[in-house]
Amino acid sequence: MNETLSMLLELQQIDDALRDLSQLRSQLEEMRKENQQALAALDEILSIRGAKLAEVRGLCEAKEADIKESEANIARSRQRLNTLTHQREQQAATRELETAKRTTQQRNEDLVKLLEQLEASESEHRRRQKDRESLLAEMQATEADLVRRIAEREAGVTELTGRRSALSGKLPRDLTSKYERISKARQGVAVVPIAAPTCTACRMSVAPQTFIRLQRMETLETCTYCNRFLIYRPTDGEPEVGLSE
Fold this sequence. Notes:
By secondary structure, the protein is mainly alpha-helical. It has helices at residues 2-83, 87-154, 157-170, 173-185, 208-216; strands spanning 191-194, 221-222, 229-232. 11% of the residues are buried.
């Protein structure tokens, strides 16, 4: 019976290791999906901000063109003023010159504001681009670490599945079938090692008489509440079987 119990426990440990590998693969798939969504959302924000930057740059260029036009008007007004001899015409030309100067000054002030806005927007855009680069690097590092862990565990899959087949062949058919039924019904956990009179899976107490039998390791016992196999193993018991780290 002791050998049967040991084989059952090893079978559970192998299934735990294989389940862990499956969970890591699912975690990697989910991580990649979430990373793609996060990057897509960030890229959309960068695209919107990039479009706004282009718009502000266009306004700056248009304002610079307006200033050049105003400066040309000032130059023409001055030239015209120098050629006039009648006072009334000179007064009109002077008013025209002052208007052109005020327009130029206003346009320069508007340009300064636009340039300040542009500088702030460009700074923010660069910051967000750096944030994206940092996020991408972090995502890639985390993903690479998970890929490495999966590869390390996959290296032992063939050996473990072979050992599992061997154990299933050695155990009685009805016991193997019961193990599979419990495993399917209990999220992959059919065997529970315990060191105290408590089922570590469902946290319910084990009857004193049952715990004594478990310690003797002469019978196959199950939890009254969750129906899992119970196997006595002291705290410093045998090392667990697992995929290589």
